[in-house]
């Protein structure tokens, strides 16, 4: 049996880390052939204490904690990979929970040569049973919220752009390098872009599944998606051919701002803004109503639209701010270059 290294970036995850370790112990895979490496970003809560409590109770699970002084996910993943000794690497998050056959099916697909990086469908769980958390969880798996992201909305087994919590042979790191530590988010997507640009395949198999705990409130959701949008532009500037239609919400937000500004002087701009807002709100209400009926949860009529709108406008605002900063930096750099030439 080949050995598997399960790598986990972690920072202040006292609420979920033991549940993750318990899910790992329930895998249909020999624990003797599995090592768990947790790269902790110097947690200030009881995360490490919770890990020690679990490993003292379940001694057959091989768990190592390593320090991640940089505190970002990419650095954590690279440190964990460096410490790994397995033939295969599987990445997890500290608030994710792999289903019992996760490791087994990942190895099955890798050994069958279906992909160089293999992953599955992520089922989003609410952080609690309040209406806000439940609405956010539904939005995080809704096509109107996440577009055609296959690992979020489910799909048939096929080649895709990216997967969450991928599994790959350790030798893949030697071929394409580790995770880009200049990216605070989108590190998985960037990693998978390099897999594909080096002739590899990213494979999604719906037999492979895991659960993931979504944000618990709109503020945290807004921060999460603002960061997604901000760092996505950096990704697109580096790899312009990776743009997808679901990433156009930045221009959607720009249209609202632009039409609102023009509407001060022009009637046609006010009408266009009204039509766009009417279509958008109608789509949100329709999605919320359908979800409320199908899931028998009345609060989704307004909760789902609020969550999806938060995702869209936060992502779009982050994307636009990143665009403004990139444009400003380019102007400053060009000005400095011109000044240097004159001197």
Topology:
Layout: E1 4-10, H1 17-25, E2 34-40, H2 47-57, E3 62-67, H3 73-83, E4 88-91, E5 96-98, H4 102-111, E6 117-125, H5 131-139, H6 143-146, H7 150-153, E7 158-159, E8 167-169, H8 171-176, H9 187-197, E9 202-213, H10 218-238, H11 249-262, H12 267-295, H13 300-342
Parallel strand pairs: 1-2, 1-4, 2-3, 6-9
Antiparallel strand pairs: 4-8, 5-9, 7-9
Helix pairs in contact: 1-2, 5-13, 10-13, 11-12, 11-13, 12-13
What does this structure look like?
The chain has 343 residues and is α/β, with parallel strands linked by helices. It has 2 domains: 213 residues, Spore Coat Polysaccharide Biosynthesis Protein SpsA, Chain A, CATH 3.90.550; 102 residues, no CATH class. The chain has 13 helices and 9 strands. Strands 3-2-1-4-8 form a 5-stranded mixed β-sheet. Strands 5, 6, 7 and 9 form a 4-stranded mixed β-sheet that branches. Helix 1 packs parallel to helix 2, helix 11 crosses helix 13 and helix 12 crosses helix 13. The protein starts with a strand and ends with a helix. 39% of the residues are buried. The model has no long low-confidence stretch (mean pLDDT 88).
